[in-house]
Amino acid sequence: MSTVMKKVDAVIVGFGWTGAIMAKELTEAGLNVVALERGPMQDTYPDGNYPQVIDELTYSVRKKLFQDVSKETVTIRHSVNDVALPNRQLGAFLPGNGVGGAGLHWSGVHFRVDPIELRMRSHYEERYGKNFIPKDMTIQDFGVSYEELEPFFDYAEKVFGTSGQAWTVNGQRVGEGKGGNPYAPDRSDHFPLVSQKNTYSAQLFQKAANEVGYKPYNLPSANTSGPYTNPYGAQMGPCNFCGFCSGYVCYMYSKASPNVNILPALKPLPNFELRPNAHVIRVNLDSTKTKATGVTYIDALGREIEQQADLVILGAFQFHNVRLMLLSGIGKPYDPKTGEGVVGKNFAYQNMGTIKAYFDKDVHTNNFIGAGGNGVAIDDFNADNFDHGPHGFVGGSPMWVNQAGSRPIAGTSNPPGTPAWGSAWKRATADYYTHQVSMDAHGAHQSYRGNYLDLDPVYRDAYGQPLLRMTFDWQENDIKMNRFMMEKMGKIAEAMNPKAIARIGKQVGDHFNTSSYQTTHLNGGAIMGTNPKTSALNRYLQSWDVHNVFVPGASAFPQGLGYNPTGLVAALTYWSARAIREQYLKNPGPLVQA
Amino acid sequence: MSEQDNPRREFLRKTLTLIPVVTVASTGLGGSVLMATPDAQAAPVAAPPVAASGPAYEPTYFTAEEWAFVNAAVARLIPADEQGPGALEAGVPEYIDRQMNTPYASGALWFMQGPFNADAAPEMGWQSKLVPKQIYRLGIAATEELCKKAYNSTFAGLDSATRDEVLKQLEAGTPKFDSVPAKMFFSFLLQNTKEGFFCDPIHGGNKGMIGWTMIGFPGARADFMDWVERNEQYPFPAVSIRGERA
């Protein structure tokens, strides 16, 4: 029997970026809000204490801040013909755990979105014709436009304290020659802070990109270039490029996180409670299955607790949101055979390519210096900024040097052909550790009929519930795009005139490798859209089927973006919160009629 | 370039007997210590080097025989050479032994529910039911048996070139051990050796920060505000979490 807690207005599952934003917005609207976080309490103190946090082995190598896969993981298979196997050690992606979620250990690259990627199918059909999109590619429109989201991008940047350089503000060109991105959409305001400094690696990339004829710009970064106080009164100090960013708690209060930028404003509120160590196992529905009554969770002592609420926000990591919907019976599960059903559909990722250039000892890239969000990028091959017609693939890719800090255990790399040990390894590691530039093509990834999420029939978590199963592999379009991007980025690397180059891209026949880190940018599975037959959520992130359940997060993306997802995740969450505050609370029910 | 063609290795085999461990000395651990490294020709590695400041580390997980193997193996994976001191001098064996008593080594950080499919393709990631503690125990025993059959010697009793030969076989997965895949054993041995060479000294390795000094990593300084934009060598030596300076 569950213990039943006093009913609240809203319960939020997960306290990362989306949970924190929703908690702030809903408490501002006067609601009583409880946030349930399955991991422990975490904050700058004590989890980011200097110098204890400057410990590569404990944090990034032994994965201190990431999801505890001893209790729950996902299973993965490449196709419906394979048996899925558990992801026993985290590898390809690193979801968070505890208060702050992945927002505590992320890097801080803070983009908006290229407007065409919000209407991906319509745009490609209009420009290239319906037959250009491969038959099994299931890309869709988000159902919301850049213009509608612009005020929320702007507000999120102010909350995060983002550093960057606008290209245009209200149509006025302001960013030429200053590191602005000529491909960026118009903005209603400048970034709250000027761009971060450029590392020497980023300067080399900028120079080479200019030589090749591209248009380099400064990455927008949620690492502060100066002191900052956000609209919630949260204070940040300037980032000192300590190099312990991605995978670490920022000891400098410089990397935006739910913990630094939002939690301080929530803590004093009488109508807010954050309950860590509360692992939600399902959303409870009433007998009509069209309304949620709250959630059930397991507390730190293993007791089952029921928290009733009028409004349920699923604000967990992408695949946890999808799993909770499947476990709770919210929305029709997707079936890849028929293409029907919506929950689990359009699971997509990021299509990465990496090139490393190695230099002589007169080029000091000092790779231990770094900040997670800083760098120089080009958008010449992102989104639809070039004619895809002759190339026969869908999708684009920004390319950049984003020197976030390379540490010696996992961050050393040597020219191709260097032995992995012995004196030759030792010599090369000493020769190249501080003399190399790593650049990425951070490619968009499209959705396909065969890439989807459902519940695993074999493996269970520590609480006896089925694990989520990923069915996922690279498709022909992905390999084609990756090879194209690697060739373009190779020209930039060659223009740097290095001693040696390593190219890490995809080859025909390559399968998804679950063990090598790519990104944590997983998308889809509970996607937003305009039609309940093809999307799980409406354009306000509200479940089509259970109207008092809202599901913010990258789970709502119908396909992956060229840019990093967090900026769009935050903007969509503010957009959804606005709809809840201004429309839903006055008249609870579907915000869009099916 | 194959190891056989490596003129530096030949040079080392013939000439290298003593290396001044300058970086260790500069930590104040032991003023003018000259640390002996094994003569490559004659040189069974029986015991780890003794730190000047205290008694030798006593392993708590590895047996005496296993300890001799670990010392002899890491001394080849990151050898002391003209580049400077290696894994032995950095305390890598101590690091690995201490790791054996952490949740990592008993697989407690991993999802270890069956069924297991140990023959899964490499891109499916870790699928073995073995954990690091077992992998070391089984891998060392199997390698010792191989050395006994092939050379009638313990691994530590082999000269450096032969030890390298055995390690290369493990790396390539050539020996077909029943108890543990040779490649898997080797990959843990190499990964943990590099961890012990480059971790913060609080974990028992990287003594005197010799790993960091070798590559120019400044450790826990973690403040580079004034160095971000410069094409210059960073001038300050490494510091550790405990405040030691290299």
TrEMBL record, chain A:
Q: Which InterPro entries match?
A: FAD/NAD-bd_sf (IPR036188), GMC_OxRdtase_N (IPR000172), GMC_OxRtase_C (IPR007867)
UniProt domain Glucose-methanol-choline oxidoreductase N-terminal: residue ranges: 232-348
- Listed GO MF terms: flavin adenine dinucleotide binding; oxidoreductase activity, acting on CH-OH group of donors
Record flagged with keyword Oxidoreductase: yes
Q: Does the keyword Flavoprotein apply?
A: yes
Which UniProt keywords are listed?
FAD, Flavoprotein, Oxidoreductase
* Entry-linked PANTHER family: LONG-CHAIN-ALCOHOL OXIDASE
- Provide the family line: Belongs to the GMC oxidoreductase family.
Q: What is this protein called?
A: GMC family oxidoreductase
Record the organism: Pseudomonas fragi
From TrEMBL, chain B:
Citing just one GO molecular function, the answer is: gluconate 2-dehydrogenase (acceptor) activity
- Give the EC number: 1.1.99.3
Q: Can you tell which superkingdom this protein's organism belongs to?
A: Bacteria
Q: Return the broad EC class.
A: oxidoreductase
Q: Does the keyword Oxidoreductase apply?
A: yes
Give the InterPro entries listed for this entry: Gluconate_2DH_su3, TAT_signal
Family matches, as Pfam families = Gluconate_2-dh3 (PF13618)
Can you name this protein?
A: Gluconate 2-dehydrogenase
Q: What organism is listed for this UniProt entry?
A: Pseudomonas fragi
